[in-house]
Amino acid sequence: MEKSLFFDYAAMVIEIVLLGSMLLKRMTNGKLNRAFILMVSAALLTDTMDILAVSYDRSPGLFITEKMIFHTLYLLMRAFTSFFCLSYFIMITDTWFKALKNTFNKLKIFLPITIAAIAMTVNLFTHHTFYISATGEYVRGPMFFMLYIVNGYYAAYAFLKIFNNRKMLGSLKVLSIYFGSFMMMCAAAIQFFIPNILIDMFANATGLLFLFIMIQRPEEITDSETGLLKMSAYDHDIVMSFNNKKPETIIMIQITNFTVLRDMLGYRNTVCIKKIVADNILQTLKKNKVHGDVYYTDSGNYRIKLEGKQASHADLVAEIINDQYKHPLKYNELHLNLIVCVCIAKIPDDIDNHKALIALGSDLKNNYTGNVLYASAINNRNKYNVMRDIDGILENAIANDQFEVYYQPIYSIKEKRFNSAEALIRLHTEKYGFISPELFIPVAEKSGSIHKIGQIVMEQVCEFIGSTEYAQLDLDYIEINLSPAQCMENDLAKNMIDIMDKNHVQPEQVNLEITESASGELQNSVMDNITALHNAGINFSLDDFGTGYSNMTRIAALPFRIIKLDKTFTKIDDNPNLIIVLENVIKMIKALNMKVVVEGIETKELVDIFSDMDCEYIQGYYYSKPLPKKEFIKFILSQKAG
Ligand code: C2E
Ligand code: MG
Ligand code: MG
User: Fold this and answer.
1) CATH class of 392-641
2) Best probe residue, ligand 1, of 599, 602, 621, 632 (max atoms within 8 Å of C-beta)
3) Residue 218, preceding bond cis, omega within 30 degrees?
4) Could you tell me the distance, in angstroms and rounded to a whole number, from the CA of residue 530 to the centre of ligand 1?
5) Superfamily of domain 6-220
6) I need a surface site. Which of 190, 225, 277, 580 has the fewest CB within 10 A?
7) Residue 18: Cβ-neighbour burial (10 angstroms; 0-12, 13-18, 19+)
8) 223-379 classified as CATH 3.40.50.970
9) Which of 359, 363, 386 lies closest to 373 in space, CA to CA?
10) What pTM, to 2 d.p., does this model score?
């Protein structure tokens, strides 16, 4: 039976399509993509050598030297294809650093391929693996099986590697890899016993295609707009690093004014800016000969992951990137000021868990100084340890009733008395001490436990309002915070009204505080909740006014009774123009028939300034910090008496 090349041609087509689509999709960033490209390229080269060798076999002339060369190259490349496949699988498990740890580990990987390479070179003279007979025929030698042993060894190594890391990879990935590898092995066995069926490389190519679809999954790991790796890839890679206890240095880059730019310039222009920043990062790495994985992790966030010796360049790269945005970015006719925050985090030295790293990433802009930040300096160990255990802490706190509502008095300037208070949740745990709501509320929003927490707060507050102690305080209402996630809960209004009814609380005795982000979510459920609660007679306050980018039309359309100016408005000393802004903002709020509360007042001077500006209510440490219920009652009673 004559050797047929159809399978080899088909394999070539698959490999060219794979390579072409990866290059066209710019899937060249990231170790895994590069390892995949290397593996496909090796397979393509192997195919080419096979086609050349078999073509010479079929030609009428003897071509002994040519046949010797191309068969040697084919067999050698075939062994390299197995070696690159193993490299790729080690890359998937992110354990190359372990594989290179000591000489024994290195030998386990590199010795077989070295033996194969030496054997194939020596074979040119000894003909123990294969030779070309005097009649021009390709004949296998007694040592031919050795190449199968090398290929088989690499397959077994890869099998074990994947098996040992099966938990981390997940069953779908493991099954896909095993299925692809099984196809390749069956084909190799067929070819061993029936050498004229050249099915080996075809099976290899289909295996690669299968891996491409199931593992490489372009849409899932590559951001098509920037060409960088996606958030999902970042998440996966850092989980791997923590699990493997692999040291990495992460440079976090955040365009802190990204949302403003998007609102101002629109989607298309923002995509271009995202891409310019991505290209700048890649160029910076290239110019400085630094190799690392670059990710776009959404909303103007980029991450560079450097490992091994590359980590020593982290400071240089971070400084260059930080400096690049000290000057406006020229885009079309515009000069845009990108406010870029850059931070270096070493794992596991600075941060030893995945959640804490993500938390630090989303906390970046609060630490912005204009200089490169270091996680080691801004990192509050306790805070990040809390983040690691936060789900368990919250579950425990809910189960064991550990949440307590504190009350911060609010002073009415006109009435010269404390007329209301804000309910603020507090969590004290034995192990971690006080945990700030700023830390756990965002987590609770993501995990869904905010609904239970919201209910606990509502119950404690309503129970208080319904009590006889409360009646002596002469307070008009209590402000209760509602997070955006709570506002989206379908039966929020019903639950709240039920709790109020149970405790005989009148609707005007509570004021619900929502932030601009919640009022901005014009989702039906949010509007339905606001309308239902408003129809039941409950008033709303807009919290943290001035921290977002207020859409006044929307604010004017919602039933707010009170607007709470955020603490940032009290930083008058830093910015004298703020007075002008404030005077006009307050005037506007009053014209809309709403009242003004100013938060975060810590000094007498600020009380005077805001009284002069005709603010109705003042809340802040100047009067009192948030107090536990008993102390709050004492405080209000003493103030009344005084
Ligand atoms: P917020 O609603 O804007 O609450 C005001 C925050 O400012 C409180 O922080 C309060 O303690 C603090 N504060 C009050 N006066 C001063 C002052 O003079 N100076 C300074 N520097 N700070 C002052 P807290 O209690 O840590 O709460 C932080 C945020 O957590 C709240 O911001 C609110 O968004 C959220 N939160 C608190 N309790 C709850 C709750 O029961 N439910 C929900 N959904 N969110 C809550
Ligand atoms: Mg509030
Ligand atoms: Mg506030």
Assistant:
1) alpha beta
2) 599
3) no
4) 22
5) Rhodopsin 7-helix transmembrane proteins (1.20.1070.10)
6) 580
7) buried
8) no
9) 363
10) 0.61
